[in-house]
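Forum > Structural Biology > Help requests

Title: Can anyone predict the 3D structure of Riboflavin biosynthesis protein RibD?

Hi all, first post here. I have the sequence for Riboflavin biosynthesis protein RibD but no way to get a structure on my laptop. I'd be grateful if someone could post the structure tokens.
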Amino acid sequence: MAARVLRLYPGPPEEVVLTGLCLADALHTLGSASAPFVYASFVGSLDGRIALQDGEASRLPVEITSENDFRLFLELQAQADCLVTHGGYLRDLAAGRLDDVLQIGTRAVDRDLARWRQENGLSAQPAVVIASASLDFPMPQSVIREKQRVLIATGRQAPRDRVDALRARGFPVIVAGDGASVEGGPLVRQLGNLGFRSVYLLTGPRMLSTMLRDGMLSRLYLTIAHRVVGGESFHTMATGPRLEGAGRLRLSSLYYDVTTPDGAGQWFARFEPLRPA
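Reply #1:
Sure, ran it for you. Structure tokens for Riboflavin biosynthesis protein RibD below:
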């Protein structure tokens, strides 16, 4: 039986099918090369945990994961011209600490989304943009196997020898920031110049913060699992200096999943950043 959720906002409340919920947003149609539509998603707990620190690596708390949230994640991914990931994820992937989520349609659960991309005029796979200050990461074999377009984004102060080595291997390197790290505004403008219209951030707090600070984020999807996780060392959604007015977001939709994860329930929320007046 298809999973169903309760739409709470905008009202009136109505029970709807989960499958197709994010596809209905048609994110691939909302941006242009001059103004790419940039969106991010997170899953967190009631106490704000999006990841727990485990030694040098961080991991998503298993108690806030669910098949329903993963389905919506895949629907968001399916609508992207390009996925922005980061070197830390690729290092964890190579070490076996995280699963590979850089492709669409390679699992039975998302074969329908591969067909959806084809029917909607998108490439077989989204391009992958790797944001990294150090440029110290392994290239995943999956992106080579699937013949995905790969670009590297870094800052102007990145190690010159590593920039040259990546370019020698045929990977374009985008300079998107005056320091070592990637900055939101320069990155989005560069991606727009390359023709990308829908950009999905598979990154973390640092990228979300720079996108908000530079006014580049178009939409935030947030799953809030009804669990208190705790933990001594953890990550939340944003990092760095206070965002002040750049951190204002307006709720545009809210759905209630009563049963998952683990019978506790969760909210699926969508937010639109408020631009300065």
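The domain at 27-250 is CATH 3.40.430.10 (Dihydrofolate Reductase, subunit A). The chain has a mean pLDDT of 95.
Shout if anything looks off.
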